[in-house]
Amino acid sequence: MADSKLDNARRNLASSMLYRIINLLLPFVLRAVLLYTVGVEYMGLTGLFTSIFSFLNLADLGFGAAIVYMMYKPMAENDTEKVCALLRVYRNIYRIVGLIILAAGLCVIPFLPHLIYGEVPDGLHLTVVYLIMLADSVMGYLFFAYRESLFTASQRVDILNYIDLGTRVLYDVLRIAVLLATRNYYLYCIVFPVVTLLRNLLVLYLSRKKFPQYVCRGDITQAEKKNLTKETAGLLISKISVKLTYDLDTIIISAFLGLTILAKFQNYQIISSNLTVFIGMIGGSITPGIGHALVTDSKEKNYRDMNIYQLLYMWLNGWVVACMVCLYQPFIQFWLGKDMLLPDYMLIWFGLYYMALKMNDVCFHYRNAAGLWWEDRRRAVFAGVFNLVMDIVLVKCMGMPGVLVATILYQVFFDSAWGDSILFKNVFTQESRFEFMKKRIYYMAVIILACAVCWMSGKLFPMVEGRNLKAVMLLLCRVLVVTALGNVILWLFYRRMPEYRDAKELLGRLLHRKN
User: Is residue 172 within 8 Å of residue 25, measured between CB atoms?
Assistant: First the structure.
């Protein structure tokens, strides 16, 4: 059984990484095609609508994660009737959710002009585009998406990843082809619901083929419904907090600064967000193992393991931040041209923004593995409201940097300080939260030092305009310098940490697994 779980974890991680690599590359091509066929305003408009519908998908209410969690045990015990009952509940909830999103989406229509600062692109019917993308969002809930839970609960996320990989390639290739052939933004948008429908039909076909025994029938008990409601409440609050932190950033930039500024901002953000998700897969892949260890191992061993993960995670993200700070400008210029560059001082804010996002990930995974959603509810509420208010206040005072500063403050005070306190109060009760925070500050100070040294060294390789061999070679030189110099600096300081030896041993076991 243990070997089977390990094999599933490796398979899921491999498929997730392949999907993320493809998902990382294709958007760069797509955004370049958008820029050169229909213009920068359409790039911003696409990002705005994506954030609006991502926020409206709050209607999911966390039921998906809660029901999948409830499916693990009956599926492992081959309790077919229980899985069928949960699947039926999930289907009914998703249908209700789809209708809620449709109603909420229609209510947003009168406010659309107020969400865009300045004029929309000439000749564009904003409501028509919005309704097409609303159809895409609703379709995901009304047509068979609930059957994805079977793959997740059976630990076969790799199948979903390959479905997403195939449809993502089809999705982006079709949009690129439509833009190049017609330069018609309406046809570009129609690709969204068409591919979503095809994807859900594929999920239906494969789930019926692999799990023919699971159909929607029966019902769950009142006690299970009560438990589902409680688990969902904690997840809902946490989800609202996340949405208020990230999706509203895009909406606020559009409303206060306009679509052109939003498009430039998102060109940088798409890089950091993809890196965040890509690296987050590593943390996500160890969460089940953390949950098992919290139950079976001593608190002392779990705390020691958390410190090891923290060192490795901060090392990896330290290198990533150094790369971002030193490579953002030459890469954006090579990718989209000099006109799409933001001022150099924005690199400092983007670097601090990314560090703030990642410094709490390890503690976040431990909170999730320990099931502390309900204990986390107050923090999530105050954090979401704080970030929303600070976004509006700081974007008026500072412009674009204000959105990043609001998130940095949110991460420091709510995710780090308050989030850590929840974990140490409920899990690591005998350990010093202050000592853990001191280590985190040390890690971040070293990362800032590494970024500064790499930035100054990168100046030896100036940026050049155009997409030519010289530009590529200079960019590659910067990559090599940042990789070598950044990791040397991180090693010089991180090797002083008491968990360095254990981290080195763990990394060696992961890289040289014995068959």
Answer: no
